[in-house]
Design a protein that fits this description.
Radius of gyration: 20 Å
Order of helices and strands: EEEEEEEHHEHHEHHHHHHH
CATH superfamily of the largest domain: Regulatory protein AraC
Oligomer: single chain
Distance between the termini: 39 Å
Shape: globular
Strand content: 15-25%
CATH architecture of the largest domain: Sandwich
Structural class: alpha+beta
Strand order of the largest sheet: 1-7-2-5-8
Length: 280
């Protein structure tokens, strides 16, 4: 279970710094609070029984009460964020105004993205809340409540459509959650189907069938998709050669990366890199 709020507290705000390899050891859920965070740097992946989502610097992430989840690294970059926990009672006056359906829709989105012009404004609102939280004034909670309401209003007015949530065809059982977590953190190694099945203590045949049933695609295709996703980041954000990127993402050579990349995206790695510079 996630660490609950302190007795008598209705909000907790923290500016956090983590090494790139920080990961939750197991699935957790909060029973007494909602969570909202702002990623300042780094990349993270959250896995739940029903979905997987990826977020980056500039994103706001939201986790409702009673949602089992596990977060793991999404890249080798250190992770920094602002993180807020608050009780259902603390947010209820806001819900009374905007409506429960609007609030639920916001939390069902999981990730909120913003334009580059809006991101500094959102980050500053989190920073201001952390400053206020660390004060010892008689009206601190009242001020924080108003700041939280303003933050949610700003998010509602400025969020962009989100398409990075991957919904699982079937709710994931614990062995498959563990397997997905292992793949996401060892994709650059030679991790065979047999090896991953062994890490979750299942026979190869049973694991292969269970994996495909719950994720909707075979193990080999899922692994290739994960590697291509990381290759896209390296192509867009670095000047590393195709060969170096192939080796860093678990492909045996540049030619094989190019073949798989074009099959998945319709573009060669070189064309994707050129397009990413235009988009970015």
């Amino acid at each position: 279970m996630a660490t609950p709020l302190n007795i008598g507290e209705h909000i907790w705000v923290k500016h956090r710094f983590f090494n790139a390899d920080m990961r939750m050891g197991s699935m957790e859920m909060a029973t007494d609070h909602y969570e909202i965070g702002y990623a300042i740097s780094g990349d993270r992946i959250t896995i739940t029984p029903t979905e997987t989502y990826i977020y980056h610097a500039g994103n706001v992430t939201m986790t409702p009460t009673y949602m089992y989840h596990r977060t793991i690294p999404g890249s080798d970059a250190p992770y920094e964020n602002y993180f807020i926990k608050f009780s259902p009672e603390f947010i209820q006056p806001f819900i009374d105004v905007v409506g429960q359906n609007v609030f639920n829709d916001l939390y069902e989105q999981r990730i909120c993205s913003f334009t580059k012009e809006t991101q500094p404004k959102i980050q500053q609102m989190f920073a201001d809340m952390e400053i206020e939280y660390n004060k010892s004034t008689p009206y601190k909670n009242l001020i924080l409540q108003g700041m939280l309401f303003r933050l949610f209003t700003t998010i509602l007015e400025n969020r962009l459509p989100e398409e990075r949530v991957i919904y699982h065809p079937t709710p994931l059982t614990q062995p498959i959650v563990d397997a997905v977590s292992y793949i996401e953190t060892h994709y650059d190694d030679k991790i065979s189907l047999e090896h991953v099945a062994g890490t979750v203590h299942l026979s190869t045949a049973y694991f292969s069938r269970l994996f495909a049933e719950q994720l909707g695609i075979p193990y080999s295709e899922y692994l290739s998709n994960v590697r291509i996703r990381h290759a896209k980041v390296l192509l867009a954000q670095t000047d590393k050669s195709i060969m170096d990127i192939a080796l860093e993402t678990g492909f045996c050579n540049g030619d094989y990366l190019s073949t798989q990349f074009k099959k998945a995206t319709g573009l060669t790695p070189s064309k994707f890199r050129k397009a990413a510079k235009v988009w970015g």
